[in-house]
Prior knowledge:
Shape: globular
Order of helices and strands: HHHHHHHHHHHH
Distance between the termini: 28 Å
Structural class: mainly alpha
Largest sheet: none
Number of helices: 12
Strand content: under 5%
Helix content: over 70%
Amino acid sequence: MHYTFVFIGAIVISPIVATLGHLVIGLSGNTILADYEIASFFLSPAGLFGTLTLFIVVIILELFKLSALITVLDRHEPPFLAARNAIYTTFRITTRLGGFAWKLVQKILIAMIPGLAIVIFCVIFFFTEYDINYYLQHRPIEFWLAVLLIGSGLLLTIIFSFFVIVTGGLSLPLIVLRGESVKSALFHARSLSLRVRRRFSVSICIWFLLDVLIHTVFFIAFEWFGSQVILFAKFSPDFLVVILGCLVFLLAAGNTVIDGLMSGSLALLLKSSICTTDKKLHKQCDRIHPQYFGQF
């Protein structure tokens, strides 16, 4: 099931990434880009808009994937049958999930306004007289001030968005499992999140840190493995091409497996958090998965 949404995501996201790449090359006029040219583009209005669009699309795809995974956790069927039925169920409630995604995106965008305002102010104030290449080469005091302010703006954006996601994330199981409307689920989740906000926030932070740690260890180990394997093929160009192709495949497969495991654990975390505060869902969860939820 995870691979289904990976395939859908590749179809949806690829045109956006290709458009951003085309815009970067089109604005610079060169097929080979320097770091400062890429940074200048993503700090421009077109770059910020493209990045924001990509961010919104990723959020919507993640919501649909989490919805399907939560539905799988609610079924006591064979894995393949449960995954197939979960995908069908998810697409049957596309209207409600789309409305929920739109509401959540609106709240996230509103929460991001203060941080993005700081970033835009820094870009307008610091990068109008001199371009970013000047700052990267000479690094005057204005450069470090801009780095500090832009970093603070991005940090505020992440923190405010995190609290919106914590509150909104608790609404998803109510929409998927209880069939509540978007408005009712958001209201119910806000009242529930007052009691579990701290515990759920800590759990999400731990999950995020574990996700970063696992991916970091995987990439470091894969880089070491790849460097050792390439040594055996450096004198044979044809064999080197085969080795590089295999390494790319292993990298994509390993990263996809890790993403699938982490997405499943996040879905389990969402359902367990809502089940511990909602009596109806708690009885349902305890009946279906007592090994996970009976302890709460």
